[in-house]
Amino acid sequence: MENKDTKEKLLREFAPQLEKTSSATLVWILFLLGVIAWGVYAFVAQVTKGHIVTGMRDNVVWGIYIVNFIFFMGMSYAGAIISGTLQLFRTEWRKPIIRMAEYLAIISLLIGPGYILLCIGRLDRLHYLALFGRIQSPITWDVIAISTDIFGCLIFLYLSILRDIASLRDFSELKIPAWRKKIYSMLALGYTGLPEQVKRLRRATDIMATMVIAIAIIVYSVLAWIFSVTLQPGWHSTIFGPYFVIAAVYSGTGVLIIAMWVFRKVYRLDQYITRKHFVAMGVLMVVLAALFGYFTFSDYLTKWYGSEKNDESLIRILFTEYYWPFIFSNYVGVLIPLLVIGIPKLRTITNITLSALIVIVALWFNRYLIVIPTLESPYLPIQDSRPEWANYAGTWVEYALMAAGVALFCLMFTIASKFVPVMNVSEMSETPKTESSELFKTEESLL
Amino acid sequence: MEDNNDNKKGSRRQFLKKGLIAGAGVVAGGSLLAAYVDKSKPTSGERVKVLTTEGELVEVDKALIHSPRVSIEESHKGIPGRKFVMVIDLAKCKNARKCVEACQKGHHLPRSQEFMKVYLLQDSEKSAPYWFPKPCFHCDNPLCVSVCPVGATYKRSDGIVLIDNERCIGCKFCMTGCPYSTRVFAWKDYPEYADDKEPYSPEASSPGKEGTVSKCDFCPDLVRIGKLPYCAQNCPMGVIYFGDIDEDTVTNGSETLRFSELIRDRSGYRYLEVLGTRPSVYYLPPVERQFPVESGFKDLEESVKNRFKNTPYGKTHKL
Amino acid sequence: MRTQNKIRIIFFFLLCFCKLVTSAQNKKDSVTEITPSITFTYLNSNDTIILTANIFDKKEQGVFAIKNAVIEFSASGDKETQNLGQAKADEEGNAILKLPVATAIPKDKDGKTTYTAKFNGKGKFQPAMETFSAKLARITVNFSKEDSLHFILVTATQVDYKGSVKPIQKEKVVVYVPRLFTLLKIGETDLDEAGTGKVEYTMKLVGDSLGNIMVLARIEENDKFGNVQGQSSISWGIPKQYYLAERPTRELWTPIAPIWMIVTLITMLTGVWAHYIYAVIQLIKIKQISKKNPENPENSGFPHNQ
């Protein structure tokens, strides 16, 4: 049952965020714009001088851009899967965080492919992908899959914010300019909560939730197959598909926890996003950490035990040149969450957020270690006297564009939170049915 | 008198030999510009002096002789009835690198791009190192062609795999697809590309374009007029043999051999056969070598020598 | 010693002397004066004599072909010198003259003809010359099949001073089959007293699309005859297969994809987008419903239907 009072209370709570921008937020936005401007400058340098300004050369042809691409796409799928599954299973504790998950899904999905564009040598010929696309190529599969995913996530997001927009349209206390009110009423599609409308909305949302989960798995597997169908030692692994999916969702939960923490702090949502939510997300993160650790271990164990010559040289590179990143990403990144969530005393909000941060960084390194060491140990030894041809080192251009991407992500998140409340107001104002509240109680005791 | 006659005989012999080889081109229906390798003639820096009617000397950059460049559409069709194969004799290679340089010159490449690469390989700890020239293998199951999203690289009926640099979007997927590290990328607009004033053709892989991938192309523009590729023409040791596998004949310019017999007698093999790419380049193992590996370092530039510092050979010999 | 030989030798020495003198003069730069060199090749092929003069300038940096140089060819016997014509050198420096054997060519007492290639010099280029002498000869190629064995029969004849045709004896004849860039040797034989030789054809070679192969027989680098060549074709080859299929195959690396790939892709895309369209239709219906019921604006409470 919809509780009108709760709703009004919530809307009043969120109104300030939508109405005005605090000076702190303004400074934050300006800072982000500054970083993005630096990124644009780096991009111009790349376009005018050619890709030689990056650290990529004939052997390591895919560098930080592709690492970031995989990373952002991974976050997106986490958002999609988390919001999709929580939506379908109608769990109670998901309500405050599901909006953030949806934002995560679509925003990182819009930024990720940008990194591929940076890696492409001839941007003026991008339309050839549509005109002359070859079905046999995994990149074509990826283009089709990502476009489908973007559409799907957009539709899913829209379905999710529809009710909130309708509430905002009807909320008379909202002090926002008329043009914004007009946009809300346009986007609300005249939704007024009629039974027929509710039914249709629910149906559409359920279908899109299922689709989004399925698409997320497929798209990320396709991305994994881009690597695993080549013969490169280290990439030609049969478990890359599921491995990438698990790693993606794992990294996404980390980002989601960070987003939860940030919005909780900034918008003072302490009563809505409680420790219980953090612990619930933490448990999810731990499960994924275990799966991620299992897949990683399985992959490297097989390579190491069989000790095929090229696998051996790859593992040697990982344990000599890339020793600390390897330890950090595959050991620390798995063990820290396990410890923090596993030991009840350590389950504080701060600890969980810190371990989420470690997880994100660890997974970025994990992607780096998947892409670059393999390219540094091809079948034919790299015999080149130029150091940058033998070993990859990212240049300022690549790091600037990476920072710009992260800044753009934060910026889009901030702007989105100013347009629609960062929590699903309509969902939250629904009184829970008895069974689900029982479920919540049981969950509470477990935690 | 006899001395003189002998002298004349010797030089006469040389003259006659050239006449034979020129005649071969005539008979075979090819053009008059038959391929021949005169080992006494260095072929670098060839320019053409043209006599004008006033007797003025005008030096013209010799467009290293090739046929008129075919259009991109035409380049998708292979030379009919042919299937090209290359045989590289590792027993004769001494890292002279004339193949590398001639190819770079013929395709107007900068020094940092090599279509033909010469490696110093050593299969295992106790086996002997050897020089390994590696062009593109023009595989019969080319992974690079399979993964190209826009169809910029393609395999023709004559077995040659070419790249259309007007179609290439520079995603570099083909470079990761090739297990032999064959392809090179144009990271910037190299000044050497502008040296080529003729229209672009995939058969010439020239002029190169920034942001696209290129590689060894088996020189179809030379093959069309009965000439061997640049590398085969310029190898001083005759290491590289080229021919049509159906005709069962390969030649390095001076020797002509039956391909099947050569492979059978000298135990020819393909590199990393296990990968399943089915290359079109066969290697003859370095048995009864004509030169020791060390001779490959003689007169070698420092920057090239430094490449082999980290090889097992380089480490033991402290290069 | 014959007068012609003496003359030849003198010419040769003169040429060398000239070269030495002129080369002494242009040690550094070719801007002032260039002394070209000519290499002269001779090929007697069936009924044509092919004279090729390659004119070049040899320097430290390399060999430079001299394009557009006009080379004059002449033939001389014991009595007369006949002008054969002239040819222009191409980009590789080759000036080629083809002479039908039927042309009356002067011969000396041995039956040999001395051919001369001469460059008269132009502007900065000094004159140059080369000579060569050979006796007219001819090789014919025939084929025979005995039991299941295939044989190539060669017959060689020479023309002497008086013009009478006689067999060539005891010279080596090499038999080839022309291939793409070169000639593949398939056998050799020595000519007997009657000027004939026999080579067995045992190979299985690919010919043209009808299975014809060309067979070439040559006397190579002979003191008396120079290079002599004769050819003929026979359908003992394996017919060549042309690879252009009517319809291209469907592989990973061909322009068109395997059918199962296309089917899978279309099925999956249709499935997914059908769901999208369904969701969008629901949204459209929501709008339509609101249009039908405009009088419930404040009912923004949303009964939760589960």
How would you describe this protein?
The complex is a heterotrimer of chains A (447), B (319) and C (306). Chain A is mainly α and 447 residues long. Chain A has a single domain, classed as Formate dehydrogenase/DMSO reductase fold. Chain A is built from 17 helices and no strands. In chain A, α3 crosses α9 and α12 (323-342) runs antiparallel to α13 (349-376). Chain B is globular. Chain C folds into three domains: 3-135, Immunoglobulins (Immunoglobulin-like, Sandwich); 138-234, Immunoglobulin-like (Sandwich), CATH 2.60.40.730; 245-286. In chain C, 19% of the residues lie in helices and 42% in strands. In chain C, the strands form three sheets. In chain C, strands 1, 2, 3, 6, 12, 13, 15 and 16 form an eight-stranded mixed beta sheet that branches. Chain C has a four-stranded antiparallel beta sheet with strand order 5-4-7-8, with helices on one face. In chain C, strands 9, 10, 11 and 14 form a four-stranded antiparallel beta sheet that branches. Classes of the chains: A mainly alpha (447), B alpha+beta (319), C alpha+beta (306). Chains in contact: A-B, A-C, B-C. At the B-C interface, α1, β1, α4 and β10 of B face β1, β2, β3, β13 and β15 of C. β1 (47-51) of chain B pairs parallel with β3 of chain C, so a sheet runs across the interface.
Count up the helices of chain C.
2
What low-confidence regions of chain C span 5 or more consecutive residues with pLDDT below 50? 22-30, 298-306
Distance between the termini of chain B: 54 Å
Roughly what is the average pLDDT of chain B, rounded to an integer? Answer: 83
Q: In terms of quaternary structure, what is this?
A: heterotrimer
**Main β-sheet description of chain B:** 5 strands, mixed
- The CATH architecture designation of the largest domain in chain B is 2-Layer Sandwich
Indicate the CATH class of the largest domain in chain B.
Answer: Alpha Beta
User: How would the global form of chain C be characterised?
Assistant: elongated
- Quickly count the domains of chain B: 2
Distance between the termini of chain C: 123 Å
Morphology of chain B: globular
The helix fraction of chain C, in percent, is 10-25%
Q: Please tell me the overall pLDDT of chain C.
A: 80
Give the number of domains of chain C. Answer: 3
Give the structural class of chain B. Answer: alpha+beta
Number-wise, the strands of chain B total 13
